[in-house]
Design goal:
Elements (H helix, E strand, L loop, with lengths): L2 H15 L3 H12 L17 E6 L2 E5 L10 E9 L2 E9 L10 E5 L6 H8 L1 H8 L2 E5 L24 H17 L6 E6 L1 H12 L6 E5 L10 H10 L15 E6 L8 H11 L7 E6 L5 E7 L8 E6 L6 E2 L8 E2 L5 H10 L6
Parallel strand pairs: 5-6, 5-7, 7-8, 8-9, 9-12, 13-14
Antiparallel strand pairs: 1-2, 3-4, 4-6, 10-11, 11-12
Helix pairs in contact: 1-2
């Protein structure tokens, strides 16, 4: 091997070890195309190296078995923070190099995983079509046997601790690693994932520009398992903790026939986002393309108050509205929650 190739390999190795993955990829591209050091990188539809695992500050680069960039990539990784480690999957849209794109963090529900949640919501297909990243943190079986996020435990309800801190740390890591537009980072979830999304909205309003909660619960609605079961059955009562206020733009979906998480939780979550804001909301009634009825209530943004949308899904149970049959807990007959969440998200931008 000649000196030029040795130099490029050494440069790429040093850049990878220091976490400068974009520059490492460019160096490898120059190597593959026979360019000398310092030459402009040649665009490539299939980078030879792509980040596969990032565990705390340790990065492994896997050059085999990665989907071509022209098709987008759905890559696996692991992240550690404050003694907690969780795996994740990240959808990287094709043609993203050089662009600062939005990021949507998707938190699955109980008995789900990232692949299942991605299939049911169809979010990866939308990410490829619209140009954004999707991050799916995965709950560990040893943290919760049903793969639920522990939204109801006090140690997982605060800034700087537990699962919220780990998800926030992972989000910031992905933002830095991929050059994400930090003003367009959003979080959404279903059921327990929706409840954890609400917790993140309260704990980390400096990271996220908006939150979407589907069939979830307000932040801080319970502090133990017994309270969680009570709140899920009937909504918050005087016997359960006061909920925490959300200051971010918020969109909520909840079926009024949900027997797993009572619809009162959707109403209470909306109330926690609206606060004491005056003004009459805009109310509209409609049908999904498949004929399922809904009521959409909108509180537009006003000074000191973020925008809030509430979709009451009539006759719908505990499932992602408009979801795909390939995933679990989906209702293909309902209004397209994925499309409506993204439409709401794209109208919001953080003040970072």
């Amino acid at each position: 091997m000649n000196n030029t190739l040795h130099k490029l390999l050494h440069q790429a190795s040093q850049l990878t070890q220091s976490g400068r993955l974009a520059e490492a990829t460019a160096a490898i591209q120059r190597l593959l195309h026979g360019k000398r050091p310092g030459a402009a990188p040649v665009p490539s539809a299939s980078p030879a190296a792509a980040p596969d695992v990032r565990d705390g500050g340790v990065i492994e680069v896997n050059t085999a078995g990665t989907a071509k960039l022209s098709q987008g990539e759905f890559i696996s990784g692991s992240h550690s923070h404050q003694q907690l480690t969780r795996r994740y999957k990240l959808y990287v849209p094709a043609g993203h190099l050089g662009e600062s794109l939005p990021l949507v963090v998707m938190l699955h529900g109980c008995k789900q995983n990232p692949d299942d949640f991605a299939a049911g919501t169809g979010m990866n297909q939308r990410a490829q079509a619209q140009g954004f990243f999707v991050l799916y943190p995965e709950q560990a079986a040893d943290a919760n046997p049903s793969a639920c996020w522990n939204w109801f435990q006090h140690q997982h309800q605060q800034r700087g601790a537990g699962e919220p801190a780990l998800i926030a740390s992972l989000t910031l890591d992905i933002i830095a690693q991929y050059g994400i537009d930090a003003q367009r980072v959003y979080v959404a979830g279903l059921s327990a994932g929706g409840a954890m999304a609400a917790v993140l909205a309260v704990a980390y309003p400096d990271i996220f520009a908006a939150v979407g909660v589907h069939s979830g619960l307000p932040a801080g609605a319970a502090s133990n398992v017994a309270q969680a079961l009570m709140v899920m059955k009937r909504g918050r009562t005087s016997a359960t903790p006061a909920t925490s206020a959300i200051s971010l733009p918020t969109i909520v979906f909840h079926g009024d026939a949900d027997s797993t998480v009572h619809p009162h939780n959707g109403e209470q979550l909306v109330a926690s986002a609206r606060g004491q804001a005056p003004g009459q909301p805009q109310v509209e009634h409609g049908l999904s393309a498949q004929g399922q009825a809904y009521t959409r209530t909108i509180w537009p943004a006003q000074p000191g108050q973020a925008a809030v949308e509430y979709w009451q899904l009539h006759g719908a149970g505990h499932a992602w509205s408009g979801g795909r049959a390939e995933g679990s807990f989906t209702n293909p007959q309902g209004v397209d929650a994925s499309a409506e969440m993204l439409r709401f998200f794209w109208s919001q931008r953080s003040g970072n």
